[in-house]
Amino acid sequence: MSRSRTLALAVALLFVTAGCQSLGTEAADGPETVTPAPVPTTTTTPVGGDTGVDTGRIADRHRAALDGRSYTITVAFTVQYDNGSTGRLRDRFVVGPEERYRWNRRVAGPYPERVRDHAAWQSESGSAIRRTLENGTTSVGRGDVVGPSDPSLSFYVARLIRGFDVSAEGTPEGRRLYGTSDEARSVPLPAGLTDGHDSAINVRIRDGVVTSLAIGCRARLRETGQPVWFRFDFFVSDVGGAPPTEPSWATTATPAADRTETATPS
After folding, report:
1. What is the pTM of this model?
2. Total number of domains constituting the chain
3. Contact in structure between 40 and 209 (CB atoms under 8 Å)
């Protein structure tokens, strides 16, 4: 089985469920909490947006640093409403150095998109998928998955950074990128939001790995026009840690005949 199948299901669920997608984690959910901040008024070297950033090099180094290693990627989206309520969606992917992959999605609160909890397991022998249905019950099955060959999501990270006018500075841990964009053209809004604006990005890079990427912006609910605050977080953790193990529910999954799911990033 090709490496592409290892990532396929997660990317399918990350990109297909929404035009971009959205979730947020509680503070304890991710390796750290990153809040996009305004650009400091310091003299630094422009490296992004229209000024020309080598996002290809950032992506290549990120992918190469993670290749052949176990690691965890957490992609989190948060929508905060004026009344104080919060809708959250979190995708967590555990990737192994061999063709093993575990994915979990959790949705909480009034999230502006029709998505539910999901889980998946991918190995050399195939995939198992567990879905929460509309009636609250759980469906478990097996099927092949075909999709992109980049478990590190380096192409996605590069696309996000490219939408900002970014500056860089060195830190004791590595490198930091930060910037703003009035149009929020690369912000991964969920399908239920529109009019992203006044966005900021904050990126941390260590040993070539984009360890965290945070974007915050203002937006509006597509149906009502209600203003909201949106936050996107991307974390890489547990690099070189224990590889993913097969969940107990996957061992009882029923094979689905001639069933193939294809991942197509937006």
Report:
1. 0.77
2. 1
3. no
